[in-house]
Amino acid sequence: MEKNNIILINNFEVGDPNKQQKVADMLEDFSKQILSKHDGFISTRIHKSLDGKKVMSYVQWKNEDAIEKMLNDPRAIIQMNDIASVAKVERTLYELVFAEKKIG
User: Does residue 102 lie in a domain region?
Assistant: First the structure.
């Protein structure tokens, strides 16, 4: 059975706080230019740690198939390699099981 609402969480360790904004900007460009153009893309959120050493991206996809297609896109590979040259990355896939939003 295919799982829906798959989240790709990428944790980037930049080490040097001077590189944190650069990585966040690279991820924003990556999302706008590559991710958002792929079928199955739902949303991206990019977070910077308060200590200046990490950046986290939370990318929601309709299913694992959509992620696989994006990961095999030559344009995505180039962008991911560029980001990896600035920060160490750890990727993990998650299935969304609960979300709550305050209304009002």
Answer: no
